[in-house]
Amino acid sequence: MEAKIAPSMLSSDFSNLASEAHYMLQCGADWLHMDIMDGYVTMLFFAFTIPSCFCSMNDMMHFVPNLTIGAPVIQSLRKHTTAYLDCHLMVTNPLDYVEPFGKAGASGFTFHIEASKDNWKEIIRRVKAAGMRPGVSLKPGTSVDEVYPLIEDEEPVQIVLVMTVEPGFGGQKFMPEMMDKVRTLRKKYPSLDIEVDGGLGPSTIELAASSGANCIVAGSSIFGAKEPAEVISIFRKSVEGAQQNKQWQR
Ligand SMILES: O=C(CO)[C@H](O)[C@H](O)COP(=O)(O)O
Ligand SMILES: [Fe+2]
Predict the structure, then answer these.
(1) Which atom of ligand 1 is nearest to 201's Cα?
(2) Which residue ranges make up each domain of the chain?
(3) Contact at 8 Å (CB) between 33 and 197?
(4) Cβ contact 110:139 at 8 Å
(5) What would you report as the CA-atom Rg of the chain, rounded to the nearest whole angstrom?
(6) Core-most of 95, 115, 186, 195, by most CB within 10 Å?
(7) Strand pairing of 215-218 and 84-90?
(8) What is annotated as the active site (predicted)?
């Protein structure tokens, strides 16, 4: 599978998003990874006390303890680039975001299985209808078996994003134990795009690439580097080498 290197714009200077995006593309990025996070309600007390006629639990609960950007930012960025915008939706109600993101110009729409157990078929259908590429992501605690039905459906997801940190923040430590999921997916689905996200850098890329990941998301290691182009090139060489030799089969 082709290598796709996707800098996470979460680590960019949001006040200069368009120029940061152009810089990443100049440095050799294939995709731009956009992290959409819906914030976290810490006052859970209210979730249990406010009568459900006013507010459902789903309205109160959020997916991650951080709040980032939404469709208006994608729409603004789209005016400045034709690049593939790889949107990673860490939200409790992905279905509500499909049309806004489609209209805003998102290219990929990757939602979490933990937030879509009852409606993933409908999400995939609508993502495709909105002209985007559907993807599914799984948190570290979620078993890989949970995404098989979405890959094997008649309208399948086209990318699986294996989280290698708990979703919510950049700059966390890579979880090597997630590589079992990547190897299992790669052996079962040789031509699936498999993305890894969280803690990827020059010291962890070899393990991710040799396990079978071909789409690499990285924020802090790319934006924090003196020469982001060198880091992107290390990622690409690693993935290309591993894909050529099918290193996960060893
Ligand atoms: O989805 C994410 C966090 O939930 C980010 O894409 C991810 O953390 C990238 O940042 P870094 O490379 O710094 O770990
Ligand atoms: Fe992400």
Answers:
(1) 12
(2) 4-249
(3) yes
(4) no
(5) 18
(6) 195
(7) unpaired
(8) 35, 197
197 as an active site residue: the answer is yes
Q: Give 190-193 contacts, CB < 8 A, sequence gap 24+.
A: 191/1, 192/1, 192/151, 192/158, 192/159, 192/160, 193/1, 193/4, 193/135, 193/158, 193/159, 193/160
CA distance 235 to 210: 12
- The token duo for 56 is 């459902």
Q: Which residue has the tokens 């393990």?
A: 207
To test the pocket of ligand 1, the residue of 165, 173, 216, 223 to mutate (highest count of ligand atoms within 8 Å of its CB) is: 165
Protein residue closest via CA to atom 8 of ligand 1: 170
The CATH architecture to which 4-249 belongs is: Alpha-Beta Barrel (3.20)
Determine if the pTM surpasses 0.90: yes
